[in-house]
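Lab meeting, item 3. Inverse folding demo.
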C-alpha cells in the first residue's frame, strides 16, 4: 500500500468527495485507511457505571482506492512513484512535482 500514517490525502469518490484530511490509521489487511474528520458515522455507546449511554460520531475506514495523496508543492492530488535514492534507501516520490514524501 502506498499510504502511511500522517499523509495528507483527498477523497476522490463517495459521499465525502473532495474533502481533505490526514491519515490517522492504515488497515493493511482490508486495504483501507482512516482519515481524520472524514466519513463520520454515528455509533451508539451503551451506558456503564461512569457514563450514561450516548450517540457519538466516529471515523469509519475508507477503501484505499478512494483516496489520493496531496502533492506538498502544488497541493493537488497525485500518484506515487517508488524509487531508491543515492544511499540505496527506498523512497516515495510524487509523480507531478517529483518531490520526496517522508
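The presenter then showed the designed sequence:
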Amino acid at each position: 500500500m502506498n499510504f502511511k500514517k500522517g499523509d495528507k490525502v483527498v477523497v476522490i469518490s463517495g459521499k465525502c468527495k473532495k474533502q481533505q484530511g490526514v491519515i490517522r490509521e492504515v488497515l493493511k489487511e482490508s486495504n483501507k485507511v482512516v482519515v481524520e474528520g472524514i466519513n463520520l458515522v454515528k455509533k451508539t455507546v451503551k451506558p456503564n457505571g461512569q457514563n450514561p449511554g450516548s450517540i457519538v460520531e466516529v471515523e469509519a475506514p475508507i477503501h484505499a482506492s478512494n483516496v489520493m495523496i496531496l502533492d506538498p508543492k502544488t497541493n493537488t492530488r497525485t500518484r506515487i512513484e517508488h524509487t531508491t535514492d543515492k544511499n540505496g534507501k527506498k523512497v516515495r516520490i510524487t509523480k507531478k512535482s517529483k518531490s520526496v514524501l517522508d
